[in-house]
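subagent[fold] <- orchestrator: predict structure for attached chain, return tokens only, no commentary.
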Amino acid sequence: MNTACKPTDVPTPGEIDIPALRQRYAHERDKRLRPEGGEQYLKTEHEYAQAYEADPHMPRVPRDPISEDLDVAVLGGGFSGLMAGVHLRNAGVSTFRHIEHAGDFGGVWYWNRYPGVQCDNDAYCYMPLLEETGYFPSKKFADGFEIQRHCRRIGEQYGLYENALFHTRITALRWDEERDRWRIATDHGDDIRARFVIMCGGPLNRPKLPGIPGLHDFRGKVFHTARWDYAYTGGRWEDPVLDKLADKRVAIVGTGATSIQAVPFLGKYAKQLYVLQRTPPTVDARPNPPTDMEWARSLQPGWQKERQRNFHHVAIEGMRPGDVDQICDIWTEINRDLAAELAGEGWPDLTLEAYLERREAMDFRVMERMRRRVEAIVEDKATAEALKPWFGFNCKRPLSNDDYYPTFNRPNVKLLDVSATRGVERLTENGFVHEGTEYGIDCLICASGFEVTSDLDRRWGIGAVDGRGGQSLYENWADGYRTLHGAMSHGFPNQFFTGYVQGGFNATTIEQFSRQGYHIAYIIRQALDRGATAVEPTLDAQDAWVAKIRATAVDISKLQRECTPGYFNNEGDHKGRRWYLGESYGPGWDAFETMMQDWRDAGTLEGLSVTCRAAQAAD
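subagent[fold] -> orchestrator:
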């Protein structure tokens, strides 16, 4: 489908002034910085719990508390939990169950049902196990309901529904040293005793609310996009005809990945729409025709792994002579354009420093193309100027949508730039205040995203995670992650972690989750085969791994400092940051995976302390 992928038409080096752009980027960043960083957002608890922690999609069915012993508890039912379950099943581990606070599998794809929701990555890479399930996405950027149905397909094919506990929130995890079990307490009063636990909460599971002054005073409707209220707006997830907004004045806060998909629908149906923007997104075109099934049938076995490999290398590591960009979208544009230029020069022999300088210059040029795209589409000059992104390509998630910018040409849609006040000034009983003017609204929609880099206890929502001797994982990691392979931590036996935790980094998040699940399932299978009751890293092995990660990790501190505030840099609060997304193995994904495979092939569980003793009876 994309063998003819070509470079984009970016400005020439002579058309841009890089020193001037650096100054403009810094100015735009500084005027948006807030001293409280990520603490500017509200927790979805207490008075907000019912609205944002409850499930509007499926009724919660009362059940009796469960008291049981099992081999493995998989804590989470999104893609990371699904992939862990698949690999446990493939490894022959049969006694396990998923525990998930939603009403079904899917994770963020269960909760996100706002109008226009789609994957903004190549679905042929993003949706896992396509060859194994015999499924093919209907288009490159699949709709949310298609992705959630694929999650259900995986759960059904691999028998994961059989033991899944849905609508179950974990309240505490404590290691029982007498029984070598994790005691799992839940909001149903369960006492589940698991030999192993796998933490699969994912980075996008807890909504965050903008801390707008006066939020409690507003008398209109308020909801988060991850809890979309179709009873209020009209329409359905699969058919978002928002006809109940015909007489409504609506404001949406936030202009990230969610907002650019929802705004075109709100603009089409609402009587009046105000888009409250602190920082404009980067939005490219999104050609998204139906999948060419003849092309799909022509693919050879192993095509998805190869496509995922191609995406990672082209998007993250750059292109070499002879490489082909199979993805051909905004994610791969900079390296594709740079490769085309270098090829035209006969692939000069550049030092790493010279290559990175050329790449940075291409970043400036690509972003200038994005700004010119805004000018070409948005008719009002002031609105177009406010919509231009003045930051580096990787500072905010790059997006694509054909309908976002044209929506601002509608007479009922108004963009309000709230960067001068670093967010919405305040809410009143009847609306919001901007630059001294009160705007009346009936509905406020929060497209403010999820808790990504907040403290771990806040994101997980588990009151206590206590290991050996009652030590708290939250306190143990107070100064940053401490793991072996990004998978286990000393003092917390038989507990495994997934996500962006001191391991390899892959551009396809789901492939990263899959390989983590594979590695974890291997260790659990080995432990079961050896009759082990407890497995954990030695302190020396953990310290050596942390030192290796910190010695090799790519230094992104400059990017952290220079970027406009967002979740990539904890809203600009980069000092002493513990949970950032960049602490990964510096030599790259392939090197990390080779190292992990060599470790498994050795079969010695190097760096792990393995305890074998007679199992004690559970309560």
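orchestrator: received. Logging for downstream: Residues 218 and 429 are 4 Å apart (CA to CA). Confidence is low (pLDDT under 50) at residues 615-619.
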